[in-house]
Amino acid sequence: MVPLGLIAIVTVGDILAPPEVHLGPFLAAAPAVTASFAGPRTTACVGALAVLAQAVVAIVRTSLTDLNHSLQITALIMISVCVTFFAYLRERHEKQLTQLRAVAEAAQQVVLRPLPRRIGPLRIASVYMAAEAEAQIGGDLFAAVRTAHGTRFIVGDVRGKGLEAVGDAALLLGAFRAAAHRQADLPSLVASLEGTVSSNLDDPRAAVSATAAPSEGFITAAVLDIPDTASVLHLINCGHPPPLLLREGLVTSLEVCEPAPPLGLNEFADSPFAAQRFPFRPGDTLLLYTDGVIEARDDSGAFYPLAQRMAALGTGGPQRLLRRLREDLLSHTLGGHLGDDAAMVAIQRVRWE
């Protein structure tokens, strides 16, 4: 309605204006405005209507062969053609963005499969927050696999960003889901994941070009095994931020005595992987997270105090905990924007019947 109203106002004003006043050039605004929100067909129709209006003005005031009006009509035709072409380009770009968003959503469902709310004696919630506004997935990862005796979890963070980080995350998650059933103990599982990551980093086909620098990629990860019938959890931490355990309003950081290097860097390790055991009783809530959470800063540069906020917001189950933590985290950051991707998984043990 705005372009049509503009054409009507300019046409009537130009007809009623004194002979020395020419309002015809303002008609070019109608197709230009239309191109900003409509497709090429609508833009072309508005442009044609503006040219027709300019012709009517020319006939009423002088004639179509008048030099001034002929030049105005020619210029209006050229402008209408140009903005119609720009509208076509914009519409095609929007279709491409829509397709890319659909692909990103599909990739998220494949790589970061939603965790079920209940697995055995565990209630679970998960959330992923991409740093980029239009991104759906990045280098942070998490997964859960049900085994014959319990549930195994992984949360990790790939070094780097972009499609390469997404590919590394997909590789590790696929290896975890496949090996979690085959490997009897947690150290063997992590050793299998290390072999997968290291072999991928050593693959010359992974290089961008023949002149590319040697890969320096690695993945920090925390891998857990939570049995169904014992109130414990087994943890191997490969350079990842330690999980937080909430028990009766108090938050404890599960620091392992023998942390392992990040996956992909274990050629520098002196000893094999060792799992450490921690109590995990009914009613306890465990929080797995990536460094994008604890490295979020407010306007003064202060980091997000995750342990303190978890203790204050930790009542009401995993779903409510993550919902409140997510809102609190975004309100802590400047403008509600994270500087890095962030992922959280909350796990609560209930009584096993």
Question: In brief, what are we looking at here?
Answer:
The protein has 353 residues and is an alpha+beta fold.
Question: If you had to describe this structure to a student in words, what would you say it looks like?
Answer:
The longest helix is centred in the N-terminal third of the chain and has 45 residues, at 67-111. The strands form two sheets. Strands 1-2-11-10-7-8 form a six-stranded antiparallel β-sheet. A five-stranded antiparallel β-sheet has the order 3-4-5-6-9, with helices on one face. Helices cover 44% and strands 19% of the residues. The chain is an alpha+beta fold and 353 residues long. The chain starts with a helix and ends with a strand.
What attributes does this structure have?
single chain, 353 residues, alpha+beta, six-stranded antiparallel beta sheet, five-stranded antiparallel beta sheet, 9 helices, 11 strands
Shape: elongated
Largest sheet: 6 strands, antiparallel
| Strand order in space, largest sheet | 1-2-11-10-7-8
Q: How many β-strand runs?
A: 11
Rg over CA atoms: 31 Å
Q: Provide the succession of SSEs.
A: HHHHEEEEHHEEEEEEHHHE
Record the SSE blueprint.
Elements: H1 2-16, H2 29-35, H3 40-61, H4 67-111, E1 118-119, E2 122-129, E3 140-146, E4 150-158, H5 162-182, H6 186-202, E5 219-227, E6 232-238, E7 244-247, E8 250-253, E9 276-279, E10 285-289, H7 291-294, H8 306-313, H9 318-332, E11 342-349
Antiparallel strand pairs: 1-2, 2-11, 3-4, 4-5, 5-6, 6-9, 7-8, 7-10, 10-11
